[in-house]
Amino acid sequence: MIKITSDLVLDESELTLSFVRASGPGGQNVNKVSSAVELRFDVARSPSLPDALKERLKKLAGRRLSDDGVLLIDAHRFRTQGLNRKDALARLVALLQAAAIEPKTRKATRPSRGAREERLQTKRKTSQIKQARRTNISHSD
Predict the structure, then answer these.
(1) Which residue(s) pair with 51 in the sheet?
(2) pTM of the predicted model over 0.70
(3) Helices in the chain by DSSP H: which ranges?
(4) What is the dihedral of CA 57, 12, 92, 42, to 10 degrees?
(5) Which of 39, 77, 105, 112 would bridge with 73, disulfide CB 3.0–4.6 Å?
(6) CATH entry 3.30.160.20 includes domain 2-100
């Protein structure tokens, strides 16, 4: 079980990990060892996630989420399979934690009487400044 938040837990059986060859540093070893990790998580069919979280996750995941609702995380930052596996899981947990935060709903508010009065006062002052400029300009023809 992978703990996402205090009340959200993800079963590891829902994840599919596959190991592939990574590009990048590693010398001759890079052609022999499958150290990169592909983590697949079926968001659409996951019983662990509530529907609202799934919707927020779809927006956050972007291109990492396929059309059929499978999240794909590629981890090839490190040269060892174990570190790449931990990295992929950490990135999944971070993504799920970000999606678990419910956005606050905006409450419509109206400006106070003082704020309206201050705004109008500033407009009057700006208008007077511009009017004063107009009378001071001499047209030389």
Answers:
(1) none
(2) no
(3) 51-61, 81-100, 113-136
(4) -40
(5) 39
(6) yes
All structural domains of the chain with their residue ranges: 2-100
40, 18 Cβ separation under 8 angstroms: yes
What sign has the CA pseudo-torsion 75, 81, 83, 88?
positive
Any idea which residue has 């590693």 for tokens?
Answer: 26
Task: Determine the Cα–Cα distance for residues 40 and 18; give it in Å rounded to an integer.
Answer: 8
DSSP 8-state symbol, 112: -
Q: 86 is written with which tokens?
A: 């931990």
Q: How many CB atoms lie within 10 A of CB 95?
A: 18
Q: What is the DSSP string of 54-74?
A: HHHHHHHHGGGB-TTSEEEEE
Query: Which tokens belong to 136?
Result: 């001071």
CA distance 44 to 71: 9
Return per-residue pLDDT of the chain as tens, 141 residues.
Answer: 776 766 776 767 777 777 777 666 555 666 666 777 788 887 777 777 777 777 887 887 778 777 777 888 887 777 777 888 888 888 888 888 887 788 888 898 999 999 999 999 999 999 999 988 887 666 655
Give the residue from 19, 15, 4, 17 showing the smallest Cα distance to 76: 19
